[in-house]
Design goal:
Blueprint (H helix, E strand, L loop, with lengths): L16 H4 L3 E3 H13 L5 H6 L4 H5 L4 E3 H15 L4 H7 L8 H7 L4 H10 L1 H4 L4 E6 L3 E7 L7 H20 L7 E3 L8 H8 L2 E3 L6 E5 H4 L8 H21 L1 H13 L7 H7 L4 H10 L4 H19 L4 H7 L5 H12 L3 H9 L2 E2 L13 H9 L3
Parallel strand pairs: 5-6
Antiparallel strand pairs: 1-2, 3-4, 3-8, 4-7, 5-7
Length: about 375
Amino acid sequence: MKESGSGASVRHADGIRAMNEIGTIQAAFFQAILRHLRMMDFDISSLIERTAFNADQLNDPDARIPRQQFFQFWQALSNRVHDPAIAVRMGEMAHPRFMGVLGGVIAGSKTLREGLHQIVHYRKLIDSEDYAAETIGQDRYTFIYIPQSPASLEPAMVELRLVTVVTLARMLTQTNVTPIEIRFRYPAPAHIAHYERIFRCDLHFEQADNAIVWDTRSADLLLPQYNDCAQAILRRHVELLLEQLQHSDNLVGRVQQYISDTLRTGRASLDGCAAALYMGRRTLHRRLSNESTSFQKLHDMVRRQLAFKYLAEKNLSTADVATLLGFSESSAFHRAFKRWSGHNPADFSLRHRSDRILPCPTSSVLSHSADKMSSMVNDIGN
């Protein structure tokens, strides 16, 4: 195990209200957590009652759960369990059938790389606000994940996601495939022995991102359950779910688009947005309030997400990014990014400059029954 980084403590804006109070999480993801807790013989009834989940959220894998409600549940769980490695243990229980129809799409991919790409491409179905990306260098493939969660919960969210990815990689390839290295934004935890046992590779803490790095040979491993015909049917369903999610977030999405389009001018405002959407200022404020958000929260969220995107995916200087995000001075952007991530924007950009983001492939158009794929997914790991 290796630790490296600047040595400076990682700082985040605790709460990150703009990230937590909007957006939704896949119900199948939450249902899997409940299933794992039951397997651990943990009584979840009081937690469910305290956080006011309803029957639809607990029974329909395609339903959506407010992120704020999910984070409240996780915080209450952490206070009850007193097990710092609870997220690690859950990640080890990961299985495609616990991920709803998206699990079938992942399991039906041709290679490990393609399966990981499905997680990136359909990330908004899992969590509508999280940031995920994939990059490829000359001899490696990198899966990047930066949760938009309260600072106090980030390690748990990262553990859950990255342990799940490594567990699925080994399950789907039916090998003991091991990454080259894994990076974490936060300091090494007290339960690092679990990391070493599961990941079996070099671990680097206090980095600019959270990422799993694979060599290309590992990334190109074939998945025995590959079924292009069945996957196409499942992918259509996933695309429909994504379309429904985007439609349900229509007003929020339109406001986010306005902010994205006007950030560079530095004139993005509630009044300007209301005018662009042909509604009164008070009406827009009220409708956003009904969505448990506000113009300022969305403005901050879009700025932060685009900052990560531009620095990770585009060959831009930090001064260029500052301009694109509407900062009056580069120094103001540096302070903001440092507050968001705990690192300088140049460090984050340098980490990804030698890589390029993979394009999203188009879905194949085939029409055969997906029943065989469903059966295959259920058989994996049995």
